[in-house]
Amino acid sequence: MAAPEINLPAAVSESTFGSKGNLTESPNRPDSPKGEEKEIVREGTDDSPSSLKDSPIIYHYLTFETELPPPTTLGPTVDGFPEPESPDLCNFVSPFTWSESRKTFTIWLSCLITVVTAYTAGSYSPAGEQMSKEWDVSQTAILVGITTFTTGFATAPMIIAPFSELNGRRPVFIATGILFVISQLCCAVTQSYPGMLVARFFAGVGGSSFSTMVGGVVADIYHTEDRNTPMALFSGAALFGTGLGPLCSGFIAQNMSWRWVFYVQTITCGLFILAVIVFFKETRGSVLLSRRAKLLNTWYESREKVGLVGFNMAIEGQSNHTSQRIRWRVKSDEDRESLRKMIGISVYRPFRELAPLYVLILTLTDYRSAFNGARCVLLLSMGEQIIHWSAQFLIE
Fold first, then answer.
1. Is the pTM of this model over 0.85?
2. Which CATH superfamily groups domain 95-284?
């Protein structure tokens, strides 16, 4: 899901200075609730670059709505070094503010790759008869390839999902997409039955991200009230691909070698993964904001190296500004759990949600068994009575 918007709190300083320092805290601000971080204000001291160079770095929280402050000094630099160019932040804006055409293209590309991965789930069985004859194994054994595929498809998202929260959707899509294409090629060229089972497992691992994380992409770029149509397209793409697999693969298996069932998928998947690499842009808002902060901090450091120190920060509740050495932080980065804990929660939560359902199924099964048992006893006892009555009637 997309990270919630973060309100910009007061600035945080690395250290607190006494009465002789350049920075002091305003301890009794009437507009500050108790327990909130105190604002750092600058007294009437010299704001020249030389004096700012030895002042502490002040950290502020960055949001997509934060107005970036202008530099205090514009030149000249130390020893005549060129002034560092300001970074281009066009690729690090909130996905909610993307144009409608960009959002539509992203959704359609995600849905098309979902069709391709869902196609893989049902395309295996039409080639089963040929594989059974080639490797001299039963049809039942051949269909274990469906089991291994669904095993990888079900377990991989529990591990992959936390990585997408930390590193973004795009790197995970590219990594799993490349694995998916390689696995499909291995299915096409394998010469053994065990090799097919292993390749199908990794095909399930690679294809799982496109059928499970596209919902997250929708949440990244659309607000709640606008998600109906994109989610309907995503659901329809998954169902359409599942039905398309047996249709196309059955035709290929009847007219060509079973290996071409997987060659066709390798070619198709390769083209779509290439499209993802070239055209798909990162949609995870918190990741984009972290990259924005890192880019700005790098620019600030490069300016300080050439003697251009300080930015004019507005003082909250006042019209004047104060020059500060600033760096940006992202609130979601500080609140985020460790990768190990996130994976643990991702693995544990599905089983926790399924446990009550499992107990309910067992309970219903027990009740149904008891009901069937009572019905059988009743029928048997009535049957003996009916036979007894029939015998007495025939004797008479």
1. no
2. MFS general substrate transporter like domains (1.20.1250.20)
